[in-house]
Amino acid sequence: MRDTMTRWQRPTHPLQLIWGLLIWSAWFVLIYAAQALSCTRPTAHALSGITALNGMLLIAGLVLAAALVALMWRCVRATRVPRLPATERFIALAAAVLHGSAAFSVLFVAVPLWSLPPCL
Questions:
Q1: What is the average per-residue pLDDT within 92-112?
Q2: How many angstroms separate the CA atoms of 91 and 26, rounded?
Q3: 23-36, pLDDT tens digit by residue?
Q4: Any residues with CB less than 8 A from the CB of 91 and at least 6 apart, and which?
Q5: Which are the contacts of 20, defined by CB distance < 8 A and separation ≥ 6?
Q6: What CA–CA distance (Å, rounded) separates 5 from 15?
Q7: Pairwise CA distance, residues 94 & 52, whole Å
Q8: Who's near 22: CB < 8 A, 6+ residues apart?
Q9: What is the pLDDT of residue 4?
Q10: What is the largest CA-CA distance in the chain?
Q11: For residue 9, is pLDDT > 80?
Q12: Which has the higher per-residue pLDDT, 97 or 14?
């Protein structure tokens, strides 16, 4: 079977070390920008904490965390390949840890959205 994956998409490529944290930082900017913009037009439900924006951001956060966990699992599987050079094994393992920490960080910010009002 021919490998059609480009080089930078492989779990052993050094760019894997920053993908998870880049995805998390984009999520962080998006969530706080959306929350700030929702404060300019408060809705009737803004005081209760459960708004459509919070629900959408929570769902997006859960999907993003699942994607980061999938990236982490892919890197973990790459470390089990026999005859993999030590540097590539280290990159894959370090990337798996970083993807996992990015997934945890996304969930750490997304889960409280369900109960906190947008303009706290």
A1: 92
A2: 22
A3: 999 999 998 888 88
A4: 12, 13, 14, 16, 17
A5: 68, 71, 72, 95, 98, 99, 100, 101, 102, 103
A6: 14
A7: 37
A8: none
A9: 58
A10: 61
A11: no
A12: 97
Burial of 84 (0-12, 13-18, 19+ CB in 10 A): middle
Confidence of residue 37 (pLDDT cuts 50, 70, 90): confident
**Predicted confidence band of residue 1 (pLDDT cuts 50, 70, 90):** very low
How far apart (Å, rounded) are the C-alpha atoms in residues 103 and 20? 8
Structure tokens at 54: 């919070």
Q: What digits encode the pLDDT tens for the residues 45-55?
A: 555 556 788 88
Query: Is residue 61 within 8 Å of 31, Cβ to Cβ?
Result: yes
Q: Rounded to an integer, what distance in angstroms lies between the CA atom of residue 48 and that of residue 117?
A: 6
Spell out the residues 6+ positions from residue 101 whose beta carbon is closer than 8 angstroms to its own. Answer: 20
Asked if 16 contacts 92 with a C-beta cutoff of 8 angstroms, the reply is: yes
Q: What is the rounded distance in angstroms from the CA atom of residue 70 to the CA atom of residue 103?
A: 10
Tokens 């026999």 belong to residue: 82
